[in-house]
Amino acid sequence: MRIYADTSFLVGYAVWNDTNAQAATAFYEAKQDETWWWSPWHRVEVFNSIRQLTRLRQAKRALLVEEAKRVIRNLEEDVRCRYFEHIEADWRDVLRTSHEISLANAFVRECPATDLLHVAYAIEVGTDLFVTFDASQYELAVREGLNAVVPKLS
Q1: Could you tell me if 76 and 121 lie in one domain?
Q2: Is 89 left (phi over 0), alpha (psi -120 to 50) or beta?
Q3: How many secondary structure helices (H) and strands (E) does the chain include?
């Protein structure tokens, strides 16, 4: 099974004090023998999201700069060790698909560009399972024909 996880899942997996950390870790561990994909888009959005956690005022979720750097290094190591497999899609196709998804959805439901890119990327690489904690992105993925899941703690 080829799994595409979005930023909400990957931040939950990587950041120990994230709201979704327990559910993300349990889900990953249950499916660790599957192929988890990592894209150039993940590198940009996931790492940026982790860096942005250093700016939070909520002490419970905030990270210190050194903590954020360590989390990013750990994720980079996971990619190097192939816990996450690097996958490339043709960006022209991803952007075209993003545009088509927007045309079909953006007038009637929440549809941020970042969600469009994740769903389109997952479609273009032929993912078997799309994993997210984002309810609107889950809905978008399902509407676009992806097998999607929002992990829950058992």
Answers
A1: no
A2: beta
A3: 7, 5
The reply to whether 69 and 116 lie within a common domain is no
Each residue's pLDDT expressed in tens, for the chain with a length of 154 residues: 999 999 999 999 999 999 999 999 999 999 999 999 999 999 999 999 999 999 987 767 789 999 999 999 999 999 999 999 999 999 999 999 999 999 999 999 989 999 999 999 999 999 999 999 999 999 999 999 999 999 998 7
Distance CA 42, CA 90 (A): 15
Contact indicator for 8, 137 with CB cutoff of 8 Å: yes
Contact 142, 15 (CB under 8 A): no
Residues in the chain: 154
Considering Cα of 90, then 125, then 52, then 72, what sign does the dihedral take?
negative
58 and 102 in a single domain? The answer is no
**Cα separation, 16 vs 51, whole angstroms:** 14
Region of 27 please: left (phi>0), alpha (psi -120 to 50) or beta.
alpha
Contact 42, 10 (CB under 8 A): yes
